[in-house]
Recover the amino acids of this structure.
């Protein structure tokens, strides 16, 4: 888990370096957009922490039915919130961004960031929730393998998308696509 976190930071620095090639506005957009996204990320992290503790206790006690019930219930709750964030970012990205940055050019760029990021919100919440499940049953390796592998893939995907002419949006799409992949792969692995 520590290696997973360290590699995530390293990859984020590389992607930020790539974004910096598009100027200060692109970096600011990514920074503010990331802070807005942290609402859903922190919510999912809270659910995952609670789920981790609950599942660990019940899994150790052999109460598999309670583990599954907690998993289903949490998936529903994070699914509803993730869907809300997805819809909010995709359809109202400009408006959400303009709350924090009132300049039209800035919030329009931020709206693009949130729209792209919005497609992955539900899957990001799924990924983090599934990490809590895996940690609760004492299996930290599967989430680490998936996270490290998919996060690493952000770099070549970002390079590919930029070379295809997508510009800074290609970097954001690389993050979006790999986040979707992480959520789906973790769900598939656990099931």
């Amino acid at each position: 888990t520590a290696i997973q976190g360290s590699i995530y930071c390293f990859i984020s620095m590389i992607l930020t370096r790539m974004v910096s090639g598009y100027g200060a506005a692109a970096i600011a957009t990514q920074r503010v957009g990331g802070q807005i996204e942290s609402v859903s990320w922190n919510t999912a992290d809270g659910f995952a922490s609670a789920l981790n503790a609950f599942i660990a206790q019940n899994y150790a006690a052999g109460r598999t039915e309670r583990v599954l019930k907690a998993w289903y219930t949490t998936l529903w709750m994070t699914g509803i919130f993730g869907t809300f964030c997805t819809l909010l970012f995709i359809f109202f990205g400009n408006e959400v961004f303009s709350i924090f940055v009132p300049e039209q050019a800035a919030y329009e760029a931020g709206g693009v960031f949130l729209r792209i990021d919005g497609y992955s919100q539900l899957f990001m919440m799924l990924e983090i929730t599934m990490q809590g499940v895996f940690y609760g049953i004492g299996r930290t390796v599967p989430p680490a393998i998936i996270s490290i592998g998919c996060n690493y893939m952000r770099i070549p995907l970002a390079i590919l998308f930029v070379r295809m002419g997508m510009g800074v949006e290609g970097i954001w799409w690389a993050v979006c696509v790999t986040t979707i992949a992480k959520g789906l792969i973790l769900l598939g692995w656990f099931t």
